[in-house]
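ok so I'm stuck.
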Amino acid sequence: MNKFIAFDGLDGCGKDTQVRLLSEMYQSKGRDVTVRSHPCNDNKFGRKSKQALLKTGKINHLKATLYFGLDALRSVQMYCYNKNTDIVIFSRYTLAVAYLPNVVNVIVYKIVSFILPKSDCMFFLDVSPEESLRRIKSRNEEEEMFENIEALRETRSRASKVLYEWNVIPADDAPEVISEKIIAKCLESDKALS
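replied:
not stuck anymore, here's the structure
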């Protein structure tokens, strides 16, 4: 892999939109881009994580997080250590640990971030919980266990404790404004690597 990029943030923060815009920019420059949006539907771990997210309760909470982690690890193994892969972009990555209980989440994040690939192009799209919920409701999809105002506030608070390796981008702005900031950072990073 030549370049690793990751996006994370609350549901509705615009991860998929920003992944698409960045991927299109790199593809227009002739780069080969691999995108992984977790949880993925192409393997049992991703599917099990998604199934658990559509249920409630502590057991499903833990299942969703555990299977998500296995899905992300599978993607890391398949794409991040592959020398034939040019650019890998993950939508959702290590900040899934924010869904774990307090204290445990910080410890697990430190371990996970020590082991897994990192880059200077990891972006946390910081949307307010209220805007997140508004966007989620506008999608008319089945609601997941973390898609309520209390859970969104709590997740944002927990994530804020481990953002020291991430570029925090305000995500209440228009997608084009957000994209300009992300592309500028990625192109700056590309120059530093050359």
